[in-house]
């Protein structure tokens, strides 16, 4: 039986393919390469010693999906494919709704038609908006502040309604906190498109000399050092979470959300210090005004994921930073070496 991995050539998808293949799963990737290329998957093949089957195509292409489901013996779908930049989503919201919402809808329709009901979805802690308190539990109210977040909440809502309508569905909504790091081999990692939006890729690009200095977005938040606090988790831990979620959806029906985070919050300045320690490089920075839409503090209560799917983050900040630096320094131009 095969696991269909949409968006499997991307950052989190490629790391998840490694874990799935190493666990003996048969993996089929569907990706349109809008934010990736075939190169990460070649490296996944080299890392695992196994071929990665790949279809270049789009989740919005219903005819293609029907053909894939009819040609292959697919048991479950891990759905990463989508657009993910919060700022961009405010500029081109229709593209976000089309890729993330209409694309997911087309995928779910094709799954239903093919009788495939096991679904693992890449959601995000962004569905909690600005939480009233931390750590964040899955039962907290959901509220979103930008089109990207709205696409995640809309797909979550679709999944909840679907599972309520038909007891054959078995859906895990994985709410990722802040994924960072890279595979310890240094062969796969995150390749930001243009100027990085996220903190860790920005730090690594400063360290390698591609950017002058980091802008720390605000030091007047109500946090211990005034800078924003987040729950950064190693992408390999996150990838393992998908394996655990797949085991769960194979056994239990319904639609359940799980926080995937470490439960530990770190500030922007904690991150700079941890990176400097792991890499031996200086990261010059300046304090700049807050970034619109940012919140002070966000970290998970990951207890439910541990009790329900047996998942817990194992890797700490030092490893995350060392692996980010190995990836950046060995691949200064990402996959275009
Ligand atoms: P990514 O951009 O590296 O990977 C997404 C992949 O999906 C890319 O390979 C892209 O080419 C592909 N894709 C996009 N639209 C497609 C379409 N219509 N059809 C087929 N393929 C398509 O992103 P990532 O960081 O690996 O994120 C994966 C998922 O996790 C996304 O859904 C994202 O919203 C979600 N997520 C990411 C983060 C994060 O910080 N990276 C946090 C929370 C949630
Ligand atoms: C982390 C902290 C910034 C860059 C975003 C999305 C979220 C999810 C993960 C997809 C904050 C500060 C950052 C910089 C900085 N993605 N920062 N200088 O904003 O927590 O989450 O990515 O689902 O939906 O919103 O992550 O890495 O952008 O920022 O000071 O150059 O670093 O203010 O405190 P964020 P981030």
From TrEMBL:
Coiled coil: none annotated. It is an enzyme of class 5 (isomerase). It comes from the Bacteria. InterPro entries: Epimerase_deHydtase, NAD(P)-bd_dom_sf, UDP_G4E. Pfam families: Epimerase. Gene3D superfamilies: NAD(P)-binding Rossmann-like Domain, UDP-galactose 4-epimerase, domain 1. One of its GO terms (molecular function) is UDP-glucose 4-epimerase activity. Its EC number is 5.1.3.2. GO terms for cellular component: cytosol. Its cofactor is NAD(+). Residues 3-261 form the NAD-dependent epimerase/dehydratase domain. GO terms for biological process: galactose metabolic process. It catalyses: UDP-alpha-D-glucose = UDP-alpha-D-galactose. Keywords: Carbohydrate metabolism, Galactose metabolism, Isomerase, NAD. This is UDP-glucose 4-epimerase.
